[in-house]
């Protein structure tokens, strides 16, 4: 449920999805950076330095887009999602927490926030992300040679429309 922690079958609180506050911007940027660095070579390396990414989160992402976080019961940010219009611009889970349903909860939240539909880009080489999005009813609709992204890596645009 939105804004409330989920509970495992043992009744243990797992994580909470909510809009990030100003104090969480640096932690959100760090999750993004850890996730991006850990994903190489499945995705291309970042083309920006870590300090530039942190500044981008503080100066652009937080004030101009919707920054959502998944937080653990002990408080740390363990996943992030950035929504810009009907695009999921970023969705990353801390590499130590992948496979625990955090990304799925973030997508459920995105669908609730944009019930008329969503779209996103992912790298063609990122087979894990492609399987993840397709499991969540996103369909590939456009393939590119990467000329339109900073990494110059072939990518795919996915779309989700409610049934």
Tell me briefly what this model is.
The chain has helices at 25-39, 50-64, 102-113, 127-135; strands spanning 15-19, 66-72, 77-84, 87-93, 118-123, 139-143, 155-160. It is α+β, with helices and mostly antiparallel strands.
SS field, number of helical segments: 4
The figure for the number of domains is 1
Catalogue the unreliable spans. 4-13
Q: What CATH architecture do you see?
A: 3-Layer(aba) Sandwich
Helix-and-strand structural type: alpha+beta
- Element-by-element helix/strand order: EHHEEEHEHEE
Number of strand segments:
7
- Percent of residues in beta strands: 25-35%
- What is the assigned CATH homologous superfamily? Gcn5-related N-acetyltransferase (GNAT)
- End-to-end span in angstroms? 21 Å
Largest β-sheet summary: 4 strands, antiparallel
CATH topology (level 3) name: Aminopeptidase
The order of strands across the largest sheet is 1-2-3-4
* Percent helix range: 25-40%
Mean pLDDT score? 92
Computed CA radius of gyration, to the nearest angstrom:
15 Å
In CATH's first tier, which class applies?
Alpha Beta
Give the CA-based shape: globular
């Amino acid at each position: 449920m939105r804004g409330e922690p989920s509970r495992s079958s043992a009744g243990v609180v797992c994580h909470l999805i909510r809009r990030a506050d100003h104090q969480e911007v640096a932690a959100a940027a760090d999750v993004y950076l850890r996730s991006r660095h850990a994903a190489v070579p499945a995705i291309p390396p970042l083309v920006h330095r870590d300090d530039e990414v942190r500044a981008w989160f503080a100066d652009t992402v937080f004030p101009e887009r919707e920054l959502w976080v998944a937080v653990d019961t002990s408080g740390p940010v363990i996943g992030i999602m950035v929504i810009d219009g009907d695009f999921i611009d970023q969705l990353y889970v801390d590499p130590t927490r992948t496979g625990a349903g955090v990304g799925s909860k973030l997508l459920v939240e995105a669908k609730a926030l944009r019930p008329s539909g969503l779209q996103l880009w992912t790298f063609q080489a990122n087979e894990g992300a492609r399987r993840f999005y397709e499991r969540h009813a996103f369909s590939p609709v456009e393939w590119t040679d990467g000329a339109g992204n900073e990494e110059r890596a072939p990518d795919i645009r996915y779309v989700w429309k409610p049934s």
